[in-house]
Design a protein that fits this description.
Distance between the termini: 48 Å
Strand content: 15-25%
Mean pLDDT: 94
Largest sheet: 8 strands, mixed
Shape: globular
Number of helices: 20
Number of strands: 22
Helix content: 25-40%
Low-confidence stretches: none
Radius of gyration: 23 Å
Structural class: alpha/beta
Strand order of the largest sheet: 13-22-21-14-15-20-16-19
Length: 599
Amino acid sequence: MGKTLNILGISCFYHDSAACLVRDGAIAAAAQEERFSRIKHDASFPSQAISFCLEKEGLSPEDLDYVVFYDKPVLSFERILLTHLHLAPRGLAAWIKAMPKWLVQNLHVSKILKQKLGYQGVTLYTEHHEAHAASAFYPSPFDEAAILTVDGVGEWATAAWGTGRGNKIELAAELHFPDSIGLLYSAFTSFCGFTVNSGEYKLMGLAPYGKPVYRDTILKELVDLKPDGSLRLNMRHFAFAGTKSMTNRSFAALFNGPPRKPESPLTQREMDLAASIQAVTEEALIKMACFVHGQTGMKNLCLAGGVALNCVANSKILKQTPFENIWIQPAAGDAGGAIGAALCVWHRYLENPRQNPDRTDLMGGAFLGPAFCQDTVADFLETAGYPFEKLDPATRAASIAWHLAQGKIVGYFSGPMEFGPRALGARSILADPRPPEMQEVLNTLVKNRESFRPFAPCVLEENACQYFDLDRPSPFMLLVAPVKEAHRLPGNDDEQSPFFERISRARSSIPAVTHLDYSARVQTVNPQTKPDFAAVLKWFERLTGCPVLVNTSFNVRGEPIVCTPQDAYRCFMQTNINILVMEDCLLEKEQQPPFMEND
């Protein structure tokens, strides 16, 4: 037996830093730095994520054959330099501020690897959208597929398309900075008072409360959208090319006033802006996908890049383009670039074949992060003096489901942590979706976030069609589906009603996971992929007749998803979560001692 070949992929210095270890072509481990540092969207060198990947497999830096970075820093630096030269002297302050980081850090990846990791071997680089494309195609269940990657910007590219066949990826064309549907969406995210690179989900969730009244203005004044989905931004209205700001006064003049201040009340203008940019984004992506289908004639499409996290647009692509199947990288943003970079070396650089005889996706359900065994959890709780009940594995699922059926909110911590932005049943908060007040309770008393934001339903694959118009698995919460008519409560929405009244109205028999437009961001659960989670769902259905649960990420607003038992306990005690389950340990809030922040 030959030596195992180890490839470490890393992404960092922009946002959502991550590391991934690929061993003989298989994804062995992957994690985001934010989960360890507790800094949301941490952009720093992923030292702790790398340490986890190596320790999980019992490796040291000397065991690595290649380290690969998901971006070519020289190309990104070239874009920034030429952009600022073109705009000079405007943007000089931003240039001066950015330069130390580039000259000391971003241009010296191999040097930093030696300093922080002690790695002395070969360092390789993929292009940014090459890494996105590889993360989309290589783990997918398809032998061949068209590939579409769309994000804000990576080096010069803002979108790319190509094909994947076997172990070959060929990128045919790119769209270049500053013309970017991702940056356009982020401009509206910022203008509506949300944070770029994290608030885009909020804008998408706000869209159903508005009407696309600004769509024509966007298409006339801001973006020239071509039939093939390519576009040209009118940079007279944007500031992102040379400053930290996304928009300028000219942009504000088009939309009736200055940007919304963060945390200030939302108005109908922001809702209509959200609906409008969502409509334009969907139109652009549908045009792109139709063009790519026309060029390739393929029935399968793979998607990655941050824009591929727009689950509403993904569903429109599936319904309104000729593609029969789509597969979306669950960590579609920059974090997933670590996976793509590592797989690029294995398949493109080393020319190893793909091996996927079962035609399944190779992400392992995205459960690629740290896990903590029962003994480790119990030792932590016993040492700290936190009371808990040891669940019998034979009745574990039934006990958890019983608490959920009683209306309790459950923090669920089980098995390896998810990779990517979604909690999928390893680091989740679970609840009964049927009480009309559950969405408000979760948003305000648990998550501490905006009350309009919807929650995702999780349901066993076999039961999904009972509640949702969904004809395929959706394991990563990257597709939306309408709630079936049989479960809707008709005539309950008045568009003239105040915003917060509309939020609180029940729209279906599972109101906590039914959005204003009767849509839901569905997670289907496969018993083979996540048996413990599937068992809880089965027992909840036996107890209540409802096979659906609320599944939201185990964190509060502004913090990353919990990683360790310590993180989980802290979040449990600082919120209105009633029950904490960590592996086979169950904790009730009422039994816990007073919690101090430094516990």
